[in-house]
Design a protein that fits this description.
The protein has helices at residues 22-26, 28-31, 55-71, 142-152, 156-173, 205-230, and strands at 13-14, 41-49, 74-80, 102-108, 124-127, 137-141, 187-188. By secondary structure, the chain is an alpha/beta fold. The chain has a single domain, classed as Collagenase (Catalytic Domain) (3-Layer(aba) Sandwich). It is globular, with a radius of gyration of 18 Å. The structure holds zinc ion. Residues 10, 12, 166, 170, 178, 186 line the site of zinc ion.
């Protein structure tokens, strides 16, 4: 994706020590009711997969992302993008026309040599315009997620889902800022992912207020744009 905006990078470093089974995540919603009724705002996540990911890992990650978003009143719809591969042009990972709220997610391996705006510990990043906060492109480095999960004896699917939710959070918030707790915290200790602390893996109330305000405005803008397109202006 070509981006005219400067590339702002979120170095999302996880310090994960505790292992956790994916099945525990499926039980998560029963442990604590959502703060808000889920499904109030629809959002499309268009995924471009540039490397092999085991199906259980992918499924686990998407379940966790969907849960985190649903608890924030956002219903995620997953769409498969055609990634660029050898001999195939694929789609352009760009967003805008298909849905009012759309996030583009690239799942790929990190380059051998970190770029100028990432480090060897960067697990993912979101590209946002630093002035407007607008942006839709997120990237997660799957090989680093796998490495960290293996070292931590943790669930790679959950770790992948957590990183994805974090980067999508930057897009929804329109900011590269981090919170002191919840899914948007920059560094996670072992306590964050313990079974009894899973409820912290959500957006904070303040973050949800900002997310809902931004998404509603995006929906209003989209509705206005469609309305304007339907109006015929005379000479
Ligand atoms: Zn971040």
């Amino acid at each position: 994706m070509k981006s005219a905006a400067p590339r702002a990078v979120c170095a999302f470093v996880l310090m994960l020590i505790v292992a956790m089974a994916c099945t525990s995540v499926r039980a998560w919603p029963r442990r604590r009711a959502p703060r808000e009724s889920p499904g109030t705002i629809p959002m499309v996540i268009r995924v471009y997969v540039y490397r092999e990911i085991p199906k259980p890992m992918s499924r686990c990650a998407r379940e966790l992302v969907t849960l985190i978003l649903a608890r924030g009143g956002v219903t995620a719809e997953w769409q498969e993008g055609r990634a660029i591969r050898r001999g195939h042009a694929g789609d352009k990972p760009s967003a805008g026309e298909a849905a009012p709220v759309l996030v583009t997610l690239r799942l790929m391996d990190a380059p051998a040599k970190p770029s100028a705006d990432t480090t060897s510990r960067t697990l993912g990043f979101a590209v946002l315009d630093p002035e407007t906060g607008r942006g839709d492109l997120t990237t997660v480095y799957v090989n680093r997620v796998l490495t960290l999960a293996r070292r931590a004896h943790g669930s790679p699917g959950e770790l992948l889902g957590a990183v994805i939710a974090h980067e999508i959070g930057h897009v929804l918030l329109g900011s590269q800022q981090h919170g002191r707790s919840g899914v948007m915290q920059a560094e996670w200790s072992e306590h964050t992912l313990r079974l009894e602390r899973l409820d912290r893996m959500e957006f904070t109330s303040a973050e949800l207020t900002r997310i809902h305000a931004r998404l509603r405005w995006v929906l209003v803008e989209s509705a206005l744009a469609q309305r304007l397109q339907s109006i015929e202006f005379g000479p």
